[in-house]
Design a protein that fits this description.
Elements: H1 3-12, H2 16-20, E1 33-36, H3 61-73, E2 80-83, H4 91-107, E3 114-117, H5 124-131, E4 136-138, H6 146-152, H7 158-172, E5 177-183, H8 190-204, E6 208-213, H9 230-244, H10 268-273, H11 286-290, H12 297-306, H13 315-320, H14 325-328
Parallel strand pairs: 1-2, 2-3, 3-4, 4-5, 5-6
The structure holds iron/sulfur cluster.
C-alpha cells in the first residue's frame, strides 16, 4: 500500500464522521468514503473532535483526488463525501480547496457520487461554482435553532451562516441537497427538531435529512455530556420517512412524542395508526392506505389496482399486493376475514 493510501486510511478512521455523518452510507467497502481535506479547524463545535486537534491529517486537493481515485478503481470506495476543517477560519479558502478537489476528480473522468459539504458562511458564488461538480451539496444545521446552536458552537451564526446557506442550496441545487442534526448535543427536545425539519421540508425540499446520535468524544468540551441513545436517532429516521415518503402532515404526528416533547421509543407508524379508525381496503384512498402499518406506497398502489377485480378484504389478495399482514391486520377493516389471533398471520 502506498504512503498516500496509508495516510487516507488513517484520516478515514477519524471520529469526525462518526459524529457528523454516521448515517450516510453503511459500513461497506463500497459505501462513500468520508474524509476531511484539512484535519484541523479553528471553529469550536463542542461535539467535534477536529476542533480539539493541534495537528490533524491534511491533504492537498491533488493528493486527495488521486488517492480516492485509486481506492475507487480498486473497488474500495463507492463514492466520496468530502468535507474540511477550517484552519484560521478561512471559509473561502476551504471552499476553494474542496471545489478544486472536485474539479480534479471530474476532469479525471470520475462521474460517480460526490457529496460536498458547504462550509458555514460560504459565499454564494463559491457554492454555485462547487455545485457544478457535486452530486449533492449539504450544510449541517446541527441544532434546531440559534439558541441551541449557541450551546455547542460560538463561532457559527445559525441564521446567517447556516439557515441562509440551507436556503441557497435549495435554490442552487433543488432536490439535491441535504442537512444533518446532531441529536441530543444541545439538550433540545425532539419537538424542537421536528419543527425545524418540517419547515425545512416544506420550504426547502432537501433530498434527505440525516440524524446522528450525539456521543461524547474524549477531549472535546462535551466529553462529560450524556450520550444520546442510538434508538433516538433511529426513531428519527422512521419519523422522517413518514414525513418524506408517506406524506404525513405536521398536525397528525403529535402521538409520536411524549408530554416532554421527546420521541417515544416505539414504531411511530404504529403509534399514529392506533389513533385512527380501521381502514377499509375496498374504499380507502391512497393516503389512508399508506397510514396502515405494513402497507407502503407500492402495496397501496397494488391494492388500488387489484380492487377493481378482486376482493381486497381477502388476506391472500392483500398478501399478493405486498401487504405485511402481521403488521397491517389490526388496523384494517376486513369483515369476516378479520382474525382474532395475530399469531396465524405472517
Ligand atoms: S466547523 Fe465545527 S464541525 Fe466542522 S470541522 Fe470545524 S469544529 Fe468540526
Amino acid at each position: 500500500m502506498s504512503e498516500l493510501l496509508r495516510k487516507i486510511e488513517r484520516a478515514t478512521s477519524s471520529q469526525f464522521f462518526d459524529q457528523t455523518g454516521r448515517n450516510e452510507g453503511k459500513s461497506h467497502q463500497c459505501s462513500p468514503m468520508k474524509i476531511l481535506l484539512e484535519g484541523t479547524c479553528s471553529f469550536d463545535c463542542a461535539y467535534c473532535e477536529v476542533c480539539t486537534r493541534k495537528k490533524g491529517i491534511s491533504f492537498t486537493p491533488d493528493e486527495l483526488a488521486h488517492g480516492f481515485l485509486e481506492l475507487y478503481h480498486q473497488g474500495k470506495a463507492g463514492g466520496l463525501l468530502l468535507s474540511t476543517g477550517i484552519p484560521r477560519g478561512d471559509v473561502d479558502l476551504g471552499m476553494e480547496r474542496l471545489t478544486e478537489t472536485a474539479k480534479i476528480l471530474r476532469s479525471s473522468g470520475y462521474n460517480g457520487y460526490l457529496h460536498l459539504k458547504v462550509l458555514p458562511g460560504a459565499n454564494r458564488t463559491d457554492i454555485t461554482e462547487m455545485a457544478k461538480y457535486a452530486t449533492r451539496l449539504s450544510i449541517n444545521l446541527e441544532a434546531p435553532n440559534a439558541s441551541y446552536l449557541s450551546e455547542v458552537a460560538s463561532v457559527k451564526n445559525y441564521s446567517t451562516d447556516l439557515l441562509t446557506r440551507h436556503k441557497w442550496l435549495a435554490e442552487i441545487m433543488p432536490g439535491k441537497h441535504s442537512t444533518q442534526f446532531v441529536v441530543g448535543a444541545a439538550g433540545e427536545s425532539d419537538v424542537d427538531i421536528f419543527n425545524t425539519v418540517m419547515t425545512s421540508y416544506e420550504k426547502y425540499h432537501p433530498a434527505r435529512v440525516y440524524y446522528s446520535a450525539f456521543y461524547a468524544i474524549s477531549g472535546t468540551p462535551l466529553e462529560q455530556h450524556e450520550n444520546t441513545p442510538v434508538w433516538r436517532a433511529n426513531r428519527w429516521y422512521q419519523v422522517d420517512a413518514l414525513l418524506r415518503l408517506y406524506g404525513y402532515e405536521r398536525a397528525e404526528t403529535s402521538p409520536v412524542f411524549d408530554e416532554d416533547g421527546m420521541l417515544l421509543n416505539a414504531d411511530p407508524k404504529i403509534l399514529l395508526a392506533k389513533t385512527l379508525p380501521e381502514v377499509n381496503p375496498v374504499t380507502a384512498e391512497f393516503a389512508e392506505l399508506l397510514r396502515v402499518p405494513g402497507i407502503g406506497p407500492v402495496s397501496a398502489g397494488e391494492i388500488l389496482k387489484k380492487r377493481e377485480e378482486k376482493n381486497v378484504k381477502n388476506p391472500d389478495v392483500l398478501r399478493e399486493c405486498g401487504v405485511i399482514m402481521k403488521r397491517a391486520m389490526p388496523y384494517l377493516s376486513l369483515g369476516k376475514y378479520k382474525q382474532t389471533t395475530l399469531a396465524s398471520w405472517s
